[in-house]
Write a structure and sequence with these properties.
Elements: E1 7-12, H1 16-28, E2 38-43, H2 46-55, E3 62-66, H3 74-84, E4 90-94, H4 99-107, E5 112-115, H5 121-230, H6 236-267, E6 273-276, H7 277-287, H8 289-295, E7 298-300, E8 308-311, H9 313-329, E9 337-343, E10 350-356, H10 389-399, E11 404-409, E12 413-421
Helix pairs in contact: 1-5, 3-4, 5-6, 6-10, 7-9, 9-10
The structure holds adenosine-5'-diphosphate and magnesium ion (MG).
């Protein structure tokens, strides 16, 4: 508060001559009073003072308080006033014999104490001015402190909430991680189990096919003898039965051969070498010459020669032969048109081969099933076969680090796709 502003003083003093003296002193004061006016209101009791202060809140700048009043004495006078008027500076007026008491009031929040009769106007006014200033500064500080405290509390609260939230997500995360670990463990166990059972199956397939070959040979040769020696001699019915037996033996022979080939994909696979797929496909076309001619099939290859891949040549021949063979075998009434293509998608480190036909096609619900061992969608009477071919293809492609699948539509045709990782351009030309 600038010193030039008017000053409103509430004087609580029952001794009229003391009050008069203060009025006089203040009116005589010369410091900083150029333009400032001093208004003094007086009350003679504590109760009166408190009432006056409460009724005129904000009007007074300072209270001058005598401790010895008719309705209150000593320290109590100050503490009672403080309870009601804590925001306004209070200066305690005291006699010489009460200085200790006055000091105690300062300790409890009075801005100052003045010993009556020991001051001139200037020191009195200065004390008042400083008390007002000090109280204002204290209040401002207190406000700032309160604001700060409020902010700290708010921020603490926010932080606590954040921590709580964090705890929740952390908990969730931990639960998910645990689940994942469990799942991974389960998967690992399943994979191990699968490898074990695959190995067992391979072993079984190999032993079974190998051991079955011997008795089958006996059956076949005996049947051959039976046929050549007794055909036409035992009656028509016997000929038919012998025919069935011969067909059965042939089919079994084929089954065993296919199963053996299947079991040998991993156990007897050759080390990978650069293989020219163009050569492989021509080799297959040559192998399938009879079927191609019989079916009136056309096989189309891309204008660019097919690429080289790292692989097992014999297995790649088996792969293409099964796919092209199927494309011819599962033909519709249309003459078979088989189209072989390859794509090398930019940024992709594998070739995508496809074998497309215009044959009978299949319902896509069986698209996965056809790649399992012995799974056929047709009877032997409709189409010959053992149901091993596509399972063999899958095993070969997977051994080469690729994938195989089919897209098909019943009555329209099928396209078998498979991928094979390519060798870097730097190693071999495409
Ligand atoms: N190109 C194709 N078009 C239609 N169906 C096919 C084709 N290739 C395979 N299939 C179906 O998938 C089954 C499994 O094929 P595969 O394993 O080669 O056995 P197989 O040729 O001995 O019958 C076939 O019996 C046939 O039903
Ligand atoms: Mg087949």
């Amino acid at each position: 508060m600038p010193f030039s502003q008017p000053l409103h003083v509430l004087l609580i003093e029952d001794n009229l001559s003391d009050a008069e003296l203060i009025r006089e002193l203040l009116s005589e004061a010369t410091v900083d009073t150029k333009s400032a006016q001093i208004y003094i209101e007086q009350e003679e009791t504590l109760l009166g003072g408190v009432r006056r202060y409460s009724e005129n809140e904000g009007m007074f700048d300072i209270i001058l308080l005598d401790l010895a009043l008719p309705d209150s004495q000593g320290l109590e006078t100050f503490t009672k006033l403080m309870e009601r008027a804590s925001y306004i500076p209070i200066i305690v007026l005291t006699g010489l014999d009460d200085v200790d008491l006055a000091v105690e009031t300062v300790r409890r929040g009075a801005q100052d104490y003045l010993v009556k009769g020991h001051h001139d106007g200037d020191t009195l006014l200065r004390a008042i001015r400083y008390a007002v200033e000090r109280k204002q500064a204290q209040e401002a500080l207190k406000r700032a402190h309160d604001e700060l405290e409020q902010k700290v509390q708010e921020r603490t609260h926010e932080l606590q909430e954040e921590i709580e939230e964090h705890k929740v997500t952390e908990g969730e995360l931990r639960a998910t991680t645990d689940d994942l670990q469990e799942l991974t463990e389960e998967l690992r166990e399943k994979a191990e189990e699968l490898i074990r059972s695959n190995k067992e199956l391979e072993q079984f397939a190999y032993i079974a096919s190998h051991d079955l070959q011997e008795p089958l040979r006996t059956v076949t040769s005996s049947l051959g003898l039976l046929e050549s020696r007794y055909k036409g001699k035992l009656g028509e019915e016997a000929d038919t039965f012998i025919g069935y037996a011969v067909d059965g033996a042939k089919h079994m022979h084929q089954l065993i051969r296919d199963l053996l080939a299947y079991s040998r994909v991993t156990s007897r696979g050759e080390a990978f070498k650069p293989v020219h797929c163009e050569g492989v496909v021509h080799h297959v076309i040559d192998n399938l010459k009879v079927a191609i001619e019989e079916g009136g099939a056309t096989i189309t290859l891309p204008k660019q020669p097919l690429p080289m891949v790292m692989g097992d040549k014999m297995q790649l021949i088996q792969l293409f032969q099964n796919l092209i063979g199927n494309a011819i075998k599962f033909r519709s009434k249309r003459p078979p048109e088989v189209q072989i293509s390859v794509e090398r998608a930019a940024g992709c480190n594998e070739y995508l081969f496809s074998v497309r036909d215009n044959g009978i096609g299949m319902d896509m619900q069986y698209a996965d099933k056809v790649f399992t061992l012995f799974q056929r969608l047709h009877t032997l009477e409709q189409y010959s076969g053992t149901g091993v071919g596509l399972a063999l293809c899958k095993k070969i492609v997977e051994r080469h680090g690729g994938e195989i699948w089919v897209e098909s539509e019943l009555g329209k045709g099928s396209t078998f796709y498979f991928t094979i990782p390519h060798i870097g351009r730097s190693e071999l030309p495409v």
